[in-house]
Amino acid sequence: MRSSVKTINLRMNKILDLLQEHGQLTTDELAELLTTSISTVRRDLITLEEKNEIIRKHGFCLYNFKNRDNFDESGPERLKAMIGAKAAELISNNDSVFINTSSTSLNSIKYTKATNLTIISNNLKLASLKLDPQSSYILTGGELRVPKESLVGDIAFNTINDMNADICIIGCSGVDIQHGVTTKILNEAKINKAMIEKTTKIKVLVADHRKIGLISNFKISDLTVFDYLITDEYASSTIIKEYSKLGLKIIQVSGI
């Protein structure tokens, strides 16, 4: 029988109390302390992360003591902004740039100080940013996918395939050393792959710690095609060491 809202809230509050008391705990440890199932704890942790009450790392989670009440400045959203800002430093004046539908990738355009750029994207949210009047912006066109506001299909793919860019900044759903870079969305995998293949200089992968070590549904590319991986300080150090052996330049932002 499904738990009541009151029961769920009481259990999640208990998780927060335990994390403040112990510092960090694994899913198994929380399930044992709460005398409930691992699957139940995982569902609660997903909700708590979305509310920025906790920070999930590879294998464990911890209480988010900072900025709990401001989603745009805390938790995953803050990390994605910091990763995007770091990626923005790789963009130079006069560059042409591929940006995919990832919010982390889009942040690189939000924070770049470069000008006279040509930005090519299938992310309709690009139009909502404060844009540089000295730069050019090209939306691929295609089938609009909501609520993500991504442009997909043959028109979007053909637009990308007919262009070249100096740099691509690609976000994803999962990064794994064996299975490569993956996405949850089939229609976007082909377009992301085309962006990578049509990039002539720098290929940048952006992914916060939650994506590191994960495998999603559809493969975009091998990890080795990228020049840079930009993630955050909470990514598993063991996995990051393995990635570095591939010749990737790995940048980990910090600041939470």
UniProtKB/TrEMBL annotation:
Domain HTH deoR-type: 8-63
Keywords: DNA-binding, Transcription, Transcription regulation
Pfam family, one: HTH_DeoR
One GO MF term attached to the UniProt entry: DNA-binding transcription factor activity
Protein name: Transcriptional repressor of the fructose operon, DeoR family
Taxonomy of the source species: Bacteria, Bacillati, Bacillota, Bacilli, Lactobacillales
